[in-house]
Amino acid sequence: MTCISTCMTRNWPYSSVSLEQLPSAASVLKQGATPVGSVDFLRKAMGLAGIKVPAALNYPKRLQKWLHREVTPRRKGDLPTSGEWFIKPAISTKTFRGGVYSMEEVKLIDQLTSEHAAPHDTVLTARNDLELIRKLPREFPVWVASPIAWQSEWRFYIHRGLIKGAARYDKGLDSAPEPDINAIRLMIADLSFDAPIAYALDVGVLDNGKTALVTVNDAWAMAYYPGSLPPETYLDMLRDRWIQLIKPGHVTLF
Q: What is the pLDDT along the chain (254 residues), one digit of tens a residue?
């Protein structure tokens, strides 16, 4: 409703379609009509418009010095064998939710479903993201890191190199420190050479007080947090990024 209200205010034409109805809009998508919806909705819109889905941004090389922790690329088949680890997909946006997973549970899911056996009716198989991880091939690339504690986590919306809004999205203490705005500006400067026209910097404050990069999200897969920025600004970011994607020779991302 946020985007619809903005379109109505600006007197922009709009249409509400379901995922199943999206093919009927293929021609207008190619002409620049901006799709707004879930990641699956946008992926399908890109396919209809003849756009290759951009690789997930995650941890651009230019910003890895801002991680302040070790995050390593691996294959699903090379995950640690025990303990709890943070895992997120490395190439495909939101194939499964990045988060902390027990390697024992991931391993058990693989055992329960090996050799084409039907999965047992267990609590583990009911956990959707574990099931998504199980279905991925062993060669699927992932990022792996030791779990860490954040005092606070924030999203900064960046459009044309400028901070357009921000919102805290964790549920920590109200007294937790905010990220260092100068560090945010340096991250934007470091990424300015090859950043998409619109994106989100997710950053946080570590236990040691350092401001660190959580991850980078491309605008096409970027959720709106109420109160973070004006809805019309958010829509402008989505529109500019879509136009950038449908142009021949659009930017190469990392």
A: 567 777 788 888 888 899 999 999 999 998 889 999 998 999 999 999 999 898 889 999 999 999 999 999 999 889 888 889 999 888 876 678 888 888 877 766 554 333 333 333 333 333 577 778 878 888 999 999 999 999 999 999 999 999 999 999 999 999 999 999 999 999 999 999 889 999 999 999 999 999 999 999 999 999 999 889 999 999 999 999 999 998 845 444 43
Q: How many helices (H) and strands (E) does the chain have?
A: 7, 8
Q: Indicate the pTM of the whole model.
A: 0.84
Residue 249 burial by Cβ neighbours in a 10 Å radius (0-12, 13-18, 19+): exposed
Taking alpha carbons only, the member of 221, 220, 166 closest to residue 188 is: 166
Among 210, 215, 128, 132, CA closest to 169: 215
Residue 134: φ, ψ to 5°? -60, -40
**Greatest distance between any 2 Cα atoms in the chain:** 57
